[in-house]
Description:
By secondary structure, the protein is of the alpha+beta class. Helices cover 37% and strands 21% of the residues. The chain is built from 15 helices and 16 strands. The chain has an 8-stranded mixed beta sheet with strand order 1-5-6-11-10-9-7-8, sandwiched between helices. The protein has a 5-stranded mixed beta sheet with strand order 13-12-14-15-16, with helices on both faces. A hairpin with a 7-residue loop joins strand 9 and strand 10. Helix 1 runs antiparallel to helix 5 (137-154) and helix 5 packs across helix 9 (229-244). The longest helix has 20 residues, at 14-33.
Amino acid sequence: MAITRPRGTNDFLPEDTSRWQAVEAMLRQICREFAFDEIRTPIFEETDLFIRGVGNTTDIVQKEMYTFTDRGYRSLTLRPENTASVCRAYLEDKLYGRIQPVKLYYMGPMFRYERPQAGRFRQFHQFGVEVIGTDSPYADAEIISLAWEFYNRLGIRDLKLYLNSVGCPDCRPRYREALQDYFRPYLDQLCDSCKDRFDRNPLRILDCKSEICQNIGKDAPQIYDYLCDTCADHFEQVKQILDAAGAEYLLNPRMVRGLDYYTKTAFEIVVEDIGAQSAICGGGRYDGLIEELGGEPTPAVGFALGMERIFSALKAQGDDIEIEDDCSVFVISSPENQQTRKAAFSLCYELRRLDIKSELDYEGKSIKAQLKAANRINAAYAVIIGSEELAAGQVIVKCMKDGEQTTIALADVKEYLLGR
């Protein structure tokens, strides 16, 4: 019986990875423009990092983590998200000693034991940014504008930005109590998940996808009526900064995000009409997370976006990533002459050192077969080194698009191809 990949994972073939690389290059370029530096953290961490960081009441910690015990009897977990890991690195590697705020970005695989479906996998890939060390509403607006700029450059249409404030530990308890008072008479009608959330985190009931729970919660109290002065002022400033930049957004008091560490600003970017997994980016402020992990009180804000959902959105809109094909060369040699084959190998090596994509035949196939191979890989040029050409110190350069052939000196071929 053949071995297949684990459920909820993907193989990314060369035609896929070229598109991924183009998107990753765009993300890196935007991060350079916004002055963010890359950080890379371990794929697995101590389990307690995510229990304390993500929150013990979240579905991630309760149901979705890949946790195992290593040979030293330590409990480790494949990272289900990366913000907690970045904050751990901020403390462990003393990034708080650098000029603040610290602006970081990351990209890589994450792992959650979820029911696989379109846009949702057990191994998935995230890009994210974190600004640690400032409580300025301008930082909130900056990361939102970074995400928005990325999607616009990518050409994704019908974007909507949803904005909310989820308060802070000073004002959220009053709102939590108000929600429990509202939902208590309907407790028997709520779905099983929301019955469990009622005591643990009633704010999550607002985010339930069950139609019954949504109908019950449509008249629930809104958090705006319970925000403390500090949270209300911060939220108002974020809105004013976005207004000044001409950003369009919609207020969504039901949006609470799925992680316990969020405070104040929360936001999502959604693509309309692409199916159930329409949220393609989400984030917000998490001013208490660094302290929860053992550091000093440190404000922070960030977001994460799912890489797979980028491609789902593009596919749903009938678009694709345009890949610029580099000028490529197939070096062809006479199969019966070892000297021409060695010369072809040497020329390929020199072309690659000049950053020219180059290929050659390994098997000693006929020149005709090698020309067919050059066509199959869409080579721009074929450089032919036959016995006579080698003896004369020459090569034939054939343009594969129009079939035009030029004979030039072997010593000049590199300069000739660099000018193409």
